[in-house]
Specification:
The chain is α+β, with helices and mostly antiparallel strands and about 375 residues long. It is about 20% helix and about 35% strand. It has eight helices and 19 strands. The strands form four sheets. It has a six-stranded mixed sheet, with helices on both faces. A six-stranded antiparallel barrel has the order 14-17-16-15-18-19. It has a five-stranded antiparallel sheet with strand order 5-6-7-4-8.
């Protein structure tokens, strides 16, 4: 089991640790509900250094990224980022990821540079996928995952905490943009606003060796704002309240971005890319099912892999994510159902320990 540069810090803080994507990660400190509400109302810090980072550089870097991802990287300006997915030949999803258009200060004339941020569980799979045969050869790939620390400081008070540690004007970093500079005495830190909690805030990419020092400085700067360390448990409930997909639960190699509600990051007009022909078919002919959000009507908490049924108890789908939402104080979930059951207001039932409990399809965010 791998460790992040901050595993010893989490252990010293008394975090409940567990294996996640091959890493020894903090699941919770004070408790998932307390940490969740801290991020929604104040500020919390996540260690997400288990995520993978690849650098793509070269004169064909833009074409290369566009070939392997569904969104249109050609539309990115320097210091902009986009959410995307990496399709397979069948139109399924190898991974969902972030694409950063990097400054070209280390590039030769005519070259472009990108950073791809991928899920920890998919680092090896994604790296292999990017090395399959493709028409673009003027590209170099570098895996910097093990050398990179990643902290997510989330919540409405994140700016007040972090601004004490940098001269970069954080208020000018708009959603899905970033800046690179000095933070807490560390050079070449990428400060981005691409959070997955819906609470606002920033992500910091920097030299892994500096992680304990940077963590400590942020905790000290955030003390007046009651900053807390936050585990992966609250990260999951926060993203679910926003209806954001989790790879391995809500999307995987067998799900189409169309049925997963990710058509908005699938730019078919940009030209051919891996899986584009199959995804066009999905968009034109339909997929037969759709990922929906739902709230429970009857009392019960939906969980991953609970069965979804119709009123007669006939199986029609599966719960992909579910929880008791701390901010809403009610049970919510995501799941795939036949398209006929996907309109907002539709009635579905969740089989929880042999009981069919009523739920209703709702629009996002919850």
């Amino acid at each position: 089991m791998k460790s992040t540069p901050l595993t010893a810090v989490h252990t010293a803080l008394g975090a409940k640790m567990a294996e996640f994507a091959g890493y020894n990660m903090p699941i919770q400190y004070k408790g998932i509900r307390d940490e969740h509400l801290c991020v929604r109302a104040g500020v919390g810090m996540f260690d997400v250094s288990h995520m993978g980072e690849f650098i793509v550089r070269g004169s064909e870097a833009t074409a290369f990224v566009n070939y392997f991802t569904s969104n249109d990287a050609a539309k990115l300006k320097i210091n902009e980022a986009q959410y995307s997915c990496m399709p397979n030949e069948k139109g399924g999803i190898v991974d969902d990821l972030l694409v950063y258009r990097l400054p070209e200060d280390r590039c030769a004339e005519g070259e472009q540079a990108y950073m791809l941020v991928v899920n920890a569980s998919n680092i090896a799979k994604d790296w292999a996928n990017l090395h399959q045969e493709n028409p673009f050869k003027q590209v170099t790939l570098t895996d910097i995952s093990d050398k990179t620390a990643l902290l997510a400081i989330q919540g409405p008070k994140a700016t007040a905490v972090l601004q004490q540690l940098t001269d970069i004007s954080l208020s000018e970093i708009k959603y899905y943009t970033f800046r690179k500079g000095n933070f807490a005495g560390v050079e070449n830190v990428i400060i981005s606003a691409t959070g997955y909690t819906g609470a606002g805030g920033f992500e910091l990419y920097f030299d892994a060796e500096k992680a304990p020092m940077v963590w400590q400085k942020i905790m000290e700067a955030g003390e007046i704002h009651h900053i807390q360390p936050i585990g992966l448990g609250a990260r999951d409930t926060l993203r679910l309240e926003m209806g954001f997909c989790l790879y391995g639960n809500d999307i995987d190699d067998t799900t189409s971005p169309i049925e997963a509600g990710l058509g908005w990051i699938t730019k078919l007009a940009k030209g051919s890319f891996i899986g584009s022909d199959r995804i066009k078919e999905h968009k034109t002919a339909g997929t037969g099912r759709k990922l929906v959000a739902f709230k429970m009507i009857d009392r019960g908490i939906p969980r991953h892999e609970h069965e979804i049924t119709d009123a007669e108890g006939n199986p029609i789908g599966i719960v992909t994510s579910g929880t008791q939402a701390p901010s809403l104080n009610e049970p919510i979930g995501l799941g795939y159902v036949p398209t006929v059951y996907s309109p907002t207001g539709s009635s579905i039932y969740i089989n929880i320990r042999g009981k069919l409990l009523a739920a209703q399809v709702v629009s996002l965010p919850f």
